[in-house]
Amino acid sequence: MKIVVLAGGLSSERQVSLVSGQNICLALRELGHDAVLIDMYLGLEKIDPPLQNVFSAPDGLCGGYVIQAEEPDLPVVRRSRSVPSPSMFGPNVLELCALADVVFLGLHGECGEDGRVQAVFDLLGIPYTGAGHLASAMAMNKAVCKQIMEHAGIPTPPWRELTYQETDIPRLAEELPVPCAVKIINGGSSLGMALPDTREELAAALHDTLRHGDHIIVEQKIKGRDLTVGILGDRYLPAVEMIPQSGKYFDYAAKYQSGGSQEICPAQITDEQWNMLGEAALKLHRALGLEVYSRADFILDEEGRAWCLEINTLPGMTPGSLLPKEAAAVGLSYTGLCAEILALSLKKRRKAGNSL
Hints:
This protein is an alpha+beta fold. The chain has three domains: 127 residues, Rossmann fold; 139 residues, 2-Layer Sandwich (D-amino Acid Aminotransferase, Chain A, domain 1); 62 residues, 2-Layer Sandwich (Dna Ligase, domain 1), CATH 3.30.1490. Helix content is 37%, strand content 20%. It is built from 13 helices and 13 strands. The strands form three sheets. Strands 8, 9, 10, 11, 12 and 13 form a six-stranded antiparallel β-sheet that branches. Strands 4-7-5-6 form a four-stranded antiparallel β-sheet, sandwiched between helices. Strands 2-1-3 form a three-stranded parallel β-sheet, sandwiched between helices. The protein is globular and about 60 Å long.
């Protein structure tokens, strides 16, 4: 099949996305597909006609991407286009996606996980991997996702949604509870997130989070073990426990830098605890209307209670990402994981087409 692996974009998770996309593309090519990696935001400015010749590129346009220690400088990325445009789709991106048999979404963050890309593809009739636009949008918005958790009876830490500005910070730093978690409403990869323990740290966190946006949730900080469980098809995978080497929390550096954390898979928990986490992850996946795959994050507290924090609709697919580790624990290779995501997505697409 001709497959566009769409990655990059213009979110704070851009670098992670490009590395995910690169590895997905190489795996699909190993499976015999004509897969090419396309940066959603930068696109391809110079292509010799006809466009479909891109799918014959010997290297799949994979460029040796790596994740840097710091998040990307998005204004620099914006300026790197030779022709400025307000479109989130770069030159020839939509045209190439329309020529593909399917688009494999390697996007993360606002570019790809908030449902807007899926909505465009739905309108254009372009098949893609993963969940649809509405489920993606609900899962990405942390406040909406929290409401779905509560409606489904899935325990989640007490939380509050708010929009604020710099002048509100002194008041909020006094009235919000500490310790707590401050999270940008649509963030990912622990960017736009802080775990302040004191009021001084809370004020600093609120100030720093404004770099990412002014719409946040603040939730009670639960002390316990960081665990995550992936969903693939209609089953849950082994849990992973994340232990940051810094001794703090599972932040951007801990997730993606070599030696940043210890990740134990399968996690050293009881079968009863694993089933409790897995059933909660599957319940949330279904309550949101997600399809194909996802990954839910939890805190297992000192009393053995599982608190769901959020769910990821396009989990990371980098060499150090958690979902591939979970798949490997049940004997599914990285290439096999990509093949199953592709097969499940095409099955979903055929089912949707037959219902029209």
